[in-house]
């Protein structure tokens, strides 16, 4: 089968190569790849900043997956599913023609174009967990960094669904990202945040705004290792650890399918050109990889 592999070392090469088909273990489902996406985590792994915990490499890259079931219990053959592979932990990526994942990691998706859901699993599960960890209440002042990005844009929408009007922390308040303007969110520059001015922060950009959280507030980060200095007394802090979970993903898929959540715009790139997709980056735009674009 065709697969995109990396050695996960600085200066290492990305290879589009032929590898053996995976053999699903008990409890796993074999899925034929239709689409995936490029996440910042893929770039970090390929560059060696993050090294998968299992295996010696080369590793197949990729976290997100949309495809059709080939074999396995719990789903019908030919059924379209989506899932996330926690690649940094498992060493098992999704940029391959065939992918074996635990059935519990997958959920059915509507029979729409595969790219419509290709960049949802990782950012959707991460945003969902961040909002749950936040445990926000209507009327609270919640600042969200990276509100125009993949995770941040979903976080602000999920907060609005819960009756919370977030404050979008952006680099240039005079020219906020499109989704921030569309939602009519309040905006503030990083430097404009006053100490103790918000009840909580969801940091989706790795930006240090810890001083802005009031005493006994909450600081939720989705960026491992991101700085958080100047915290007030007894501020609850946590870093989101996203896990494979088809049930949780089903909730997010439903929000997108019903129009309650909007995903960032995406550019479709052939899977064979994954190297080009890793090198390119357009602010506010995601990149999907698909076999359809190869044809």
From TrEMBL:
Stretches assigned to the Enoyl reductase (ER) domain: 11-289
A Pfam short name: ADH_N
Listed InterPro entries: ADH-like_N, ER, GroES-like_sf, Lipid_raft_assoc_Zn_ADH, NAD(P)-bd_dom_sf
Single GO molecular function: oxidoreductase activity
Region annotated Disordered, chain positions: 1-21
Domain of life where this protein originates: Bacteria
Signal peptide: none
PANTHER family found in the cross-reference section: PROTEIN AST1-RELATED
Protein name, entry field: NADP-dependent oxidoreductase
